[in-house]
């Protein structure tokens, strides 16, 4: 091959894996089953290639299938997609490696270093000191695959890597081929559909896997490469801590009653055990490297002092170390360090108090080794471990707590009622005054621990759980350190009192002791239009509040504010939600600036475009300059976690791109603190957003729309899938408002009509072009202005490009099949309206972007061409099954399997 780095191509991988699926169907099912799958495949391709006039042939085949063969078809196409996804992952790795070798990677650490090279060292240091990136993993139920299935697929991925990157003998290659074949057969025989709903502990372990097995190892490499890049541009800068990882898995209680305090405690304990084991292993490996003869080196005063202190702290272990490693001081020190790691959760004294102590020992070790000519040893073996300690501490990932504001209000109201205070009947101003006085006074008003433990106290289960959580939070911080669990997000924050209630509960539990200590960042989650438009009212009131301002000062006057992309989109539609979020980020920046508070925005993004998904580096660069303080936080959810972090090279590349984007964004914001947005552009966006919101709301509020949604998408099936531990809706009612954003998006994605990612975009743009009022007296805008906005305004360009991705993944012919399941009156009312909006949006986006196709990425076009003919049969089988009045248990299982297969084929759920 011409490619010196690789032995294979994506087409070869796809061809061989596809053939392996076919062989497996023949052997594990029957030749007739294989022929059926093959006939459906070729018929679908023929229609896509224009060799057939309609999909009637596909329908005829599906209509004649027995239930057992329907299952084989669903399983066959699902297995195909799961393997093809691995082939495309391998191709991503090839592209990364080639570009790295050619030094042509865009958005790289080298490019970030070149940006900093334009600055003097003082400014470059400030940019790096300001940057802190916090990916936050959530347990949101958008991962359709079972853990067992993912494990088998990961084994196949490693085998593909071996075939692609290693030179093998014929015997070695035969062995790898046989291993892949065995994994595919095992995959075929493994149940694809969960028979039980995963528990929160399962979700926490899933998140932990990526942290432990991939991210932990690539962190040191990212820092090493960045420091090398800075040296190449003659900047002598020690790169500070740039990122850390956080998690909601096991601690997010919003809408999930199964996330109990016991689950959170178990998650904290397990994560600590995992990270300490990784440190033990690293120290053991270091002991094999740092075997210097003490009689031939001068370890130095600092090292000798540290070793002496350890010997006094652990005399028995010290004697054992001296006997085992005579005249090897570094190995003796490492033995004592391992013992101190072992004693962290031990009743015996001598364990490290915190990660800072452990880091200090590594610093002493590194300094001594460097003074004895071991710079390369330190660089290769000690520095990566130091970076891991900086990033993961003793907690692996810090946990964020989250709950709905209604639960806090209920707990506070019931607890205060026991003290004779009728909190429920107080006005908002009176609630603020009551809570503030309670926090500022010396005596506690309530005792959360006593209240939740006393079974004779008549309080609701909701109140008891909330009080227990805050009481145990104090214990968790005492045991694991404040950093292990130091953030509390409040869903549906709409009033200042919603934030003060959490402050009150934390202060009463001893987590906060003003004015000197606050162990908690309290984070309002602004997700409704009422909350976003009232941001100054909410945040201004808090910043002026005596109790809250003291708590904020104890946290370094840094205020984290979370923006909800999912519910904002579901409430307002794609275009209006994006503009509202952008505009309100600028407003929040102005508010925090007015009060001299540093803002850290927390972007509650999902995997899909409609929920804030899309390329993260582009999203970071499209944020308004005012909002870029350097610190940024965002959620990583569902299948997006696997896509970004399952493969080490892709994980490293993903982190590299985030660092690049945030460094560039912070550098830009220092030079241009306020983004200059042309007034005409802002006015155009206001016009488009208002019209788009009106059209979107009119669709959702139209009589019969909810019934159409229920009949023209597989929402009823999705609600029954065991995707996650959290219920699909907040109250079990069938309304768009009550339905969670994830199943809402998931359902439309399955039906290939991804309206959450583009609906009303065309209506909004047309309103601008035609004039907001739609009459001759109202002067309209022009296409040239929109094209100028696309070329010069990162926000507008990213918004349209993301809509283009959702439009490109939409297939209106397939969507029509689902629409055919709805009552005729509903279908005739809604489907033409949706189809018209899609067609107009496609025309407008391509015209504004100045390109012939919706997507501009060759790899994505190729992927869509590769996938669409194979997703189509699954969609048609799904509509066939949905259209049946009565389904057997076997058909129900097949129907659920089609959901998994389409999710794999679309590489997206919710």
Summarize the entry for a quick read.
With 910 residues, the chain is mainly alpha-helical. 65% of the residues lie in helices and 6% in strands.
Within the largest sheet, what's the order of strands? 1-2-3-4-7-8-9-10
**Low-confidence region ranges:** 607-613
**Helical segment tally?**
39
The shape, in one word, is globular
Output the radius of gyration: 29 Å
Largest sheet: 8 strands, parallel, barrel
Report the average pLDDT across residues: 90
> How far do the termini sit from each other?
40 Å
Determine the strand fraction and express it as a percent band. 5-15%
Structural class, from secondary structure content? mainly alpha
What is the topology?
Layout: H1 10-28, H2 31-48, H3 56-63, H4 67-102, H5 109-117, H6 121-130, E1 132-137, H7 147-165, H8 170-189, H9 200-232, E2 246-247, H10 261-289, H11 301-313, H12 315-324, H13 329-342, H14 355-371, H15 375-392, E3 398-404, H16 405-417, H17 428-440, H18 448-453, H19 461-480, E4 485-491, H20 496-508, E5 512-513, E6 517-518, E7 521-526, H21 529-533, H22 535-544, H23 546-554, E8 558-564, H24 565-572, H25 574-594, E9 598-604, H26 616-621, E10 631-636, H27 638-645, H28 648-671, H29 679-701, H30 705-712, H31 715-720, H32 741-750, H33 761-770, H34 783-792, H35 794-809, H36 812-819, H37 824-849, H38 858-882, H39 889-906
Parallel strand pairs: 1-2, 1-10, 2-3, 3-4, 4-7, 7-8, 8-9, 9-10
Antiparallel strand pairs: 5-6
Helix pairs in contact: 1-2, 1-4, 1-8, 2-38, 3-38, 4-7, 4-38, 4-39, 5-9, 5-28, 6-28, 7-8, 9-10, 9-15, 9-28, 10-13, 10-15, 10-19, 11-12, 11-13, 12-13, 14-15, 16-19, 16-20, 17-20, 22-25, 24-25, 25-29, 29-33, 33-37, 34-35, 35-37, 38-39
């Amino acid at each position: 091959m011409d490619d010196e780095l690789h032995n294979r191509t994506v087409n070869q991988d796809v061809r061989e894996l596809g053939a392996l699926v076919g062989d497996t169907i023949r052997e594990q099912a029957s030749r007739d089953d294989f022929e059926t799958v093959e006939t459906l495949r070729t018929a679908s391709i023929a229609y896509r290639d224009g060799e057939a006039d309609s999909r009637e042939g596909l329908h005829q085949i599906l209509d004649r299938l027995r239930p057992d063969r329907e299952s084989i078809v669903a399983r066959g196409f699902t297995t195909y997609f799961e393997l093809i996804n691995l082939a495309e992952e391998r191709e991503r790795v090839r592209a990364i490696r080639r570009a790295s070798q050619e030094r042509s990677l865009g958005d790289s650490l080298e490019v970030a270093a070149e940006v900093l090279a334009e600055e003097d060292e003082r400014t470059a240091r400030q940019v790096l000191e300001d940057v802190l990136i916090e990916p936050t993993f959530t347990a949101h139920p958008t991962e359709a695959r079972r853990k067992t299935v993912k494990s088998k697929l990961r084994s196949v991925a490693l085998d593909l890597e071996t075939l692609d990157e290693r030179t093998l003998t014929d015997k070695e290659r035969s062995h790898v081929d046989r291993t892949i074949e065995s994994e595919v057969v095992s995959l075929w025989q493994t149940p694809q559909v969960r028979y039980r709903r995963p528990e929160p502990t399962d979700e926490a372990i899933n998140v932990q896997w990526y942290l432990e097995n991939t991210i932990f190892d690539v962190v040191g490499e990212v820092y090493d490469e960045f420091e090398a890049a800075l040296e190449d541009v003659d900047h002598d800068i020690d790169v500070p801590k740039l990122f850390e990882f956080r998690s909601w898995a096991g601690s997010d209680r919003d809408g999930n009653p199964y996330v109990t305090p016991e689950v959170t405690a178990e998650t904290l304990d397990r994560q600590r055990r995992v990270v300490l084991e990784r440190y033990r292993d690293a120290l053991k490996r270091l002991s094999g490297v740092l075997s210097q003869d003490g009689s031939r080196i001068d370890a130095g005063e600092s090292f000798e002092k540290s070793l002496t202190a350890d010997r006094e702290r652990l005399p028995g272990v010290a004697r054992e170390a001296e006997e085992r490693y005579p005249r090897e001081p570094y190995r003796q020190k490492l033995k004592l360090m391992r013992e101190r790691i072992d004693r962290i959760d031990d009743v015996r004294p001598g364990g490290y108090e915190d990660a800072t102590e452990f880091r200090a020992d590594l610093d002493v070790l590194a300094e001594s080794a460097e003074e004895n000519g071991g710079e390369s040893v330190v660089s290769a073996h000690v520095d990566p471990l130091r970076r891991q300690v900086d990033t993961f501490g003793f907690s692996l990932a810090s946990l964020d707590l989250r709950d709905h504001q209604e639960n806090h209000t209920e707990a506070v109201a019931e607890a205060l009622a026991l003290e004779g205070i009728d909190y429920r009947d107080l006005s908002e101003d009176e609630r603020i005054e009551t809570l503030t006085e309670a926090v500022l006074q010396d005596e506690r008003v309530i005792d959360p621990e006593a209240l939740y433990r006393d079974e004779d106290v008549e309080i609701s289960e909701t109140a008891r759980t909330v009080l227990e959580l805050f009481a145990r939070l104090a214990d968790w911080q005492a045991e694991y350190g404040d950093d292990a669990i130091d953030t509390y997000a409040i869903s549906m924050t709409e009033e200042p009192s919603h934030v003060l209630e959490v402050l009150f509960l934390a202060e009463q539990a001893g987590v906060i002791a003003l004015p000197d200590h606050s162990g908690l960042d309290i984070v309002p989650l602004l997700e409704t239009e009422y909350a976003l438009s009232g941001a100054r009212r909410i945040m201004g009131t808090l910043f002026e509040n005596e109790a809250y301002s003291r708590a904020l000062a104890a946290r370094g006057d840094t205020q984290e504010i979370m923006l909800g992309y999912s519910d904002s989109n579901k409430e307002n539609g794609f275009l209006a939600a994006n503009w509202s979020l952008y505009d309100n980020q600028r407003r929040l920046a102005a508010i925090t600036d007015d009060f001299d508070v540093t803002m850290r925005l927390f972007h509650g993004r999902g995997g899909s475009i409609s929920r804030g998904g899309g390329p993260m580096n582009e999203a970071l660069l499209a944020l308004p300059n005012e909002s870029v303080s350097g610190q940024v936080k965002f959620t990583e959810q569902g299948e997006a976690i696997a896509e970004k972090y399952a493969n080490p090279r892709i994980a490293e590349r993903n982190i590299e791109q985030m660092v690049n984007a945030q460094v560039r964004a912070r550098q830009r914001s220092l030079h241009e603190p306020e983004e200059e947005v042309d007034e005409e552009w802002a006015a155009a966006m206001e016009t488009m957003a208002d019209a788009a919101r009106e059209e979107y709301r009119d669709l959702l509020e139209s009589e019969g729309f909810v019934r159409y949604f229920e009949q023209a998408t597989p929402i009823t099936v999705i609600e029954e899938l065991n995707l996650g531990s959290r219920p699909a809706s907040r109250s079990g009612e069938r309304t768009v408002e009550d339905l969670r954003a994830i199943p809402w998006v998931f359902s439309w994605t399955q039906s290939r009509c991804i309206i959450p990612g583009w609906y009303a975009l065309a209506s909004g743009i047309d309103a601008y072009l035609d004039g907001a009022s739609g009459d001759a007296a109202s002067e309209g805008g022009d296409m040239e202005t929109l094209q100028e906005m696309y070329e010069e305004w990162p926000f507008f360009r990213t918004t349209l490009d993301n809509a283009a991705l959702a439009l490109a993944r939409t297939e209106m012919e397939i969507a029509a099949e689902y629409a055919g399941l709805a009552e005729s009156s509903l279908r005739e009312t809604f489907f033409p309206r949706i189809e018209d909006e899609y067609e107009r949006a496609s025309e407008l986006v391509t015209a504004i972007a100045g390109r012939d196709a919706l997507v501009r990425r060759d790899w994505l076009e190729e992927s869509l061409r590769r996938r669409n003919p194979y997703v189509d049969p699954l969609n048609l089988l799904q509509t066939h099954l949905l259209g049946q009045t009565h389904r057997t248990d076997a058909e129900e299982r097949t129907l659920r399997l089609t959901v998994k297969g389409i999710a794999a084929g679309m590489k997206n759920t919710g």
